[in-house]
Design brief:
By secondary structure, the protein is of the alpha+beta class. The protein has one domain: Alpha-Beta Plaits (2-Layer Sandwich). It contains three helices and four strands, in the order βαββααβ.
C-alpha cells in the first residue's frame, strides 16, 4: 500500500475553505488513479487529506496530476510558518509506505 498525505495550513484564508473548493476535484483524481481509501482531517491549524493506493503508480499519477498541482497552487500561503512554530511549509506532501 502507498500512502500520501497533503497538509494545508491556515494563513490569510482558512484551509477548510480551500478544502471545500477543491475536495471534489482531489477526490475525483484520487479515485481515477486507483485510490482505495481517502479521508479528510480538520486540525486547529489546517486540513489534511490522506489517500491510499494499492500500487505506487497510482500515487505517482495523483502527484503528477495537473488538477492536483492547480489545487495546491491555490492553497493558503502560510509561507513557512504554522501554529506550532516548526517552520513547516504551507503544502506538505508526505509519502508513506
Amino acid at each position: 500500500m502507498e500512502w500520501l498525505t497533503l497538509e494545508v495550513f491556515d494563513a490569510d484564508s482558512a484551509a477548510w475553505a480551500w478544502r471545500d473548493r477543491h475536495d471534489d476535484d482531489l477526490v475525483t483524481v484520487a479515485i481515477s488513479t486507483g485510490a482505495t481509501y481517502w479521508e479528510w482531517h480538520q486540525h486547529p491549524y489546517g486540513v489534511a487529506l490522506e489517500v491510499c493506493w494499492p500500487h505506487e503508480s497510482g500515487l505517482e499519477a495523483f502527484r503528477n496530476s495537473p488538477v492536483v498541482a492547480a489545487a495546491l497552487e491555490r492553497a493558503p500561503d502560510a509561507s513557512g510558518r504554522d501554529d506550532r512554530g516548526t517552520g513547516v511549509a504551507r503544502r506538505t506532501v508526505v509519502k508513506k509506505t
